[in-house]
Amino acid sequence: MARLRLxxxxxxxxxYVSHLDFAGTIERAIRRAKLPAAYSEGFNPHMKLxxxxxxxxGVTSDAEYLDIELTEELDxxxxxxxxxxxxxxxxxxxAAKYMGKRSQALMAVVNLATYExxxxxxxxxxxxxxxxxxxxxxxxxxxxxxxxxxxxxxxxDIKEYFAAPVAIRPVTDKQAAIIIGLSIKIxxxxxxxxxxxxxxxAVNFGLPIDKDNALINRTGLYVTDGxxxxxxxxx
Amino acid sequence: MRSLDPVSxxxxxxxxxxxxxxxxxxxxVVKNSSAVxxxxxxxxxDVYEVGMSNLGLKILYQILNDRPDTFAERVxxxxxxxxxxxxxxxxxxxxxxxxxxxxxxxxxGFSLQYExxxxxxxxxxxxxxxxxxxxxxxxxxxxxxxGGPCAFNAEPMADFVDFFILGEAEEVISEVAAAIADxxxxxxxxxxxxxxxxxxxxxxxxxxxFYEVEYHDDGQAAGIRPLMxxxxxxxxxxxxxxxDAVTFATKPIVPFIEIVHDRIMLELFRGxxxxxxxxxxxxxxxxxxxxxxxxxxxxxxxxxxxxxYNEISLVSLSSADYSCLSPLIKQLxxxxxxxxxxxxLPSLRIDSFSIDLAKQVQQVRKSGLTFAPExxxxxxxxxxxxxxxxxxxxxxxxxxxxxxxxxxxxxxMIGLPTETDEDVAGIAVLAQRxxxxxxxxxxxxxxxxxxxxxxxxxxxxxxxxxxxxxxxxEIERKQKLLRSLIKDRSISLSWHDARTSFLEGVFARxxxxxxxxxxxxxxxxxxxxxWSEHFNYDVWMDAFAAEGLDPAVYASRNxxxxxxxxxxxxxxxxxxSFLAREWQAAQxxxxxxxxxxxxxxxxxxxxxxxxxxxxxxxA
Lengths: 235, 619
Description:
- The complex is a heterodimer.
- Helix content of chain A is about 20%, strand content about 35%.
- Chain A contains 5 helices and 11 strands.
- Chain B is about 35% helix and about 15% strand.
- In chain B, the strands form 6 sheets. A 6-stranded mixed beta sheet of chain B has the order 2-1-3-4-5-6.
- In chain B, strand 13 (about 310-315), helix 10 (about 325-335) and strand 14 (about 340-345) form a beta-alpha-beta unit.
- In chain B, helix 6 packs antiparallel against helix 7, helix 9 (about 295-305) runs parallel beside helix 10 (about 325-335) and helix 14 packs parallel to helix 15 (about 420-440).
- The longest helix of chain B has 22 residues, at about 420-440.
- The termini of chain B are far apart.
- The relative contact order of chain B is 0.11.
């Protein structure tokens, strides 16, 4: 048995695929690639796949990680040559590495996610107003957001999840669109979604954006102790 | 080639299951549309999950895209939320492969599986910016073709469709593509009428515009007359003589989202010769033609390699009738188990042989077993020529309970010809017997028996095509009666809406006049009629009233054997005289044996279409 860690991308072609369906898609690609995947026992055997963190529908990613159990340690070059041609458009294999048997589960170690959100400014809005809203958000110590979930309404302080201030830059010319950079902690108690941050920025801080047309991209997932920041594949 | 998506993220993030509309699935084919001669849009007038599960369309997609001169793309009915967004934003119905307007294709082909999807055909054409009436379409619009089982009574759709394909389209689709390619390359001489004349010369092609319907004084259809020499008086279905020799869908598209049949679909054979008198498919797909076991195993290898699916479903009208089923299942399990691939059997005949098979196929264990006695009493099962007895059922269910199953689904119909209240009560009796058997065999309670009761709809080209369908009131009375008779808490009962079955019956045996009703009902909002949350009975009844037609005349009236039937010019190869004999035999509850292993019933299909039954077990 060997634990293989993969770094993959999720492009615009597959951004609307749910996390569960995305996992199924990867599973079928692995089967087509004939990687020596290990299966669970029982009536309905399933491939042993574990993702670092679920990605919301509509969000693209430059850096998704997953672990897969193999029955034998196939060399990494073969993994790449077999798997790459079997991945659908929009899913790219970036890196692969074998992890030690005692390495911790991906989901348990990843504790930071970074995002870039490209969003059009609202009609008539100017860059200066946008920059001012972001500055105001950054200067607050507490921002209460009401999270609605099937479990009910819950008040959270979204600032608690910020590992760095929100960054903002114009796309090209200052009138059209902005790019917002987020650095968000993933804690055992939960996290905050980039779409929720965007809502808070628009509603509570007057960020003048066409929120519905935002394109959210996860730029990285990290393991950090507060000082050093490494990707799960660098562990 | 366009690469720009016509749909904005704002729209896609607002609709349910947006991955229905974004394409890029594994094995989807993208060609440069300007580098081919014929651009085809393959359509199903239903949602993505239903359309993507249709085996026929998968096969046609592969055959058409294997042709270097043709590009076939897909399109399905957007769900109502997406349709509203599209209409609001002025987005035309687009193909999933290149996201270009469907109207830019040369031809759009719909698979008609079910009468209640007709309104969706109109809706999709309209959403594509294509006039729904064939007569209103110009040379700039695509040709509209329909195929599938409903094409065997094309008349209610005749106003909207340029031509129909009868029978197995993989036999003729290349000839259709070639005819259109030749016509286009020659600069479209003579326009659409010329290419339609060319197509009408092919066996299996029906161009409704080349025929005129004659009516009696009372408005009933009296006959149909060809208007030109190219239009044959009778159009015979296309049929494949040797299924091993044609393309199968070995490289099907693997969707990102879960579809209805999200697994390898392995078609063992076409046709069924058991001769159930209610069954239209049993007539339309005659005769039985089996594939060789080696062919099937090679297909599965290709399918596993090409898709990455880990489940094989055996799909045929009655998979347990495949002559080499037991060795096939053993080989499939032996060969593919290592790769985590399992086999499932969806439809089981009622006997203990089936249980032995089900035991081999452990996948079935968790989902339960399904049996279809169809009728509650032996008399009525004889009327419909079901050919199974209560002993068969008892034996099969006992074997299942002994082998550890506890969930059994039983399918029945109500409203069958000659049915009495005693027959309806028989359904409850039979279900109770199954429940009691579980207690006898296992010594405990806890069986889960689901009784699913559909309302019988007489279909054209069957022995019951002359039968007057039970009225809505009568079906509802029988449903109520049955409900009152089921007391055991281990039995749960479900039934179909009698009103949808009524409408299905009207269109199944309708004539060309129904085009006006369909058009009006669609204009007044009818769509997704097969989906209970969208079915609006009043819209349909208003449309009938406005057009001065009585739906009951189509559905509820017993038809005379001498009467002209609106589908008489469309032939499935089975003689009308055979159906009449079967209709008579039904009245006498007389059994007609399986023509494959016993006596030929002289239905006419083998002789008339020069095609033989292929039974690999006999070879």
